[in-house]
Input
Amino acid sequence: MQFGGKAITHSLRPTEQELWFLPLGGTGEIGMNMNLFGHHGQWLMVDCGVTFDEPLSADSDGAMGQKHDVVCADPSFISRQKEHLAGIVITHAHEDHIGALPYLWRRFKCPVYTTAYTAEILRRKLSSSNQGAAIPIIEVTTNETIDIGPFSVQWMAVTHSIPEPHALFIQTPAGNVFHTADWKIDPKPVTGKPFNHNPFKLLRKQNVQAMVCDSTNALRSGNSVSEGECFVGLSELISHASGRVVVGCFSSNIARLITLAQIAKQTGRYLSLLGRSLQNTVGAAKATGHWPDDLPMVDPYHTGYLLPHEVLAVATGSQGEPRAALSNLANDSYRLLSLDKGDLVIFSSIVIPGNERSIEKLISAFRARNIRTISADESALPIHASGHPCRDELALMYDWVRPQIAVPTHGEQEHMLANADIALQRHVPKTLVGKNGDVFVLSPNPKLLKNAVKTGRIPLQQ
Output
């Protein structure tokens, strides 16, 4: 993880001949993405995310400081020169890409560009803070190109674990950048269309100077599991369960929720959502046409009155968050539902690094009450699919796009180095591996300016 940095240089801006990439968060770490592209004295922000239950700093011995519930990258560099910020683009609605914007927008006061589903999620977040009408949100569609200051931005559809994820093709007179954001190659994504590689093959004719690329799974060989493959594994577990079944998964994963709703219908159970964030994301999916009309849910207040074999509940807190629904269920303190011996809790999610102890504590609490648990790595069949590309997928994307420079991001150092190694194997001429606060000069003379801008973290109050 990246903590701290040198003094902020607020006058640092690219010239008319230059194209820069400057990450303030999300490069050298996983989470709280906040990226800046710079050209002709102007900046374009891509994503504005958070992370959870994290410290703000580490001391000289590497010991972590006090943890805070919600943390984001320090935006001081750009907020103190907001007159040069042309706009903010949000690639998709995951919290590590959108979660800080409701807190920070007053520091920027510029237009926000995103697609309909992500805009709906953002408006719901803003309405709870009574500033929904204040933020100009401009909705865009797949393949649309919008001029934002000196940047011409095209939205390119990808597949990921959420509706309407997009990569960005950013064109400037000083050079072009392909920013992948979060993606994978998924032939059966459950929601949205299967991955289409043709638009990315066409990029090789667009003289892509740099490809700024997701590195999360760069250490994993092969290809990622398709979201559609989770149906069989989850159906197998749920159909053989005799008691109540509770599934913990990321609340933003609409595809997984649709799969579980289909399984509930197939097995004669009633699906309910335990946790406000789950209800919010499904509400947004319904409002934007991403939820099938033939998949009903029951009011969570009715779940406790159902017979055990009729219950299929999805709960927040798969990472062991102490105030989430799963933790309250484990402690038998959830007011809408109580679990008994023989009931089953399925963890349809990965363990995010740093959350191991919290999840182990949660599982131990269930097992102490003779409630069965099964995690993704204990299941013979897939019950979770990552939303990020493995090595073979990264290699294909580099082959299709053929950039002059590879810029790995969205990962810790080992992930980014592995991504850079794949790029070199696919004959990308140059790689630039840096961290938050480094200026990646992409043109005219590619180089890395180390520690050019102070970076850090700030806590956010919910």
